[in-house]
Amino acid sequence: MASKSSGTSPDKRRKYDEAFKTEALRLASERRSTQAAARQLGISPKLLYRWQQAQVVAEVGSVEVARAPEVRALRARLKRAEQELDMLKKAVVIFGQPTR
After folding, report:
1. Model pTM greater than 0.70?
2. Percent of the chain scored above 70 by pLDDT?
3. Which of 38, 58, 66, 69 could form a disulfide with 45 if both were Cys (CB 3.0 to 4.6 A apart)?
4. Distance between CA 42 and CA 48 in Å, rounded?
């Protein structure tokens, strides 16, 4: 008789609920490093990349459009602009406070 290996068999894969996936995607977008976010969550970076790709495809509606270089570049620029806007909003709040 063959003994079972200590590795994880395909039928014993971990299942993640949508709330976990959503939080993982949010964390990855905030950190600017998918690998660091995956390490923090204890999941494979490849899995997190797949979830990100699935999210993009769901937003765009097509795998071909989601993979287009121009679309990826524009998404990166938009993400950076949104982060800069968030920082500027925080700066306005900080510098807008009256001094003593």
Report:
1. no
2. 86
3. 38
4. 11
Q: Which of 2, 44, 7 is nearest to 24 (CA)?
A: 44
How many other C-beta atoms can be found within 10 angstroms of the C-beta atom of residue 51?
A: 20
Q: Do 30 and 24 meet the contact criterion of CB atoms below 8 Å apart?
A: no
Q: Is the separation of the CB atoms in 34 and 52 below 8 Å?
A: yes
Can you give the residue ranges of every domain in the chain? Answer: 16-67, 72-100
Tokens of 90: 């925080």
CA distance 47 to 37: 11
Three-state DSSP state, 95: helix
Question: For position 10, what pLDDT does the model report?
Answer: 55
Q: Is 16 helix (H, G, I), strand (E, B) or coil?
A: coil
Q: What percent of the chain has pLDDT over 90?
A: 16
Closest-CA residue to 35 (of 17, 18, 48): 48
* Contact call for residues 35 and 24 (beta carbons, < 8 A): no
- Which DSSP category does 43 fall into? S
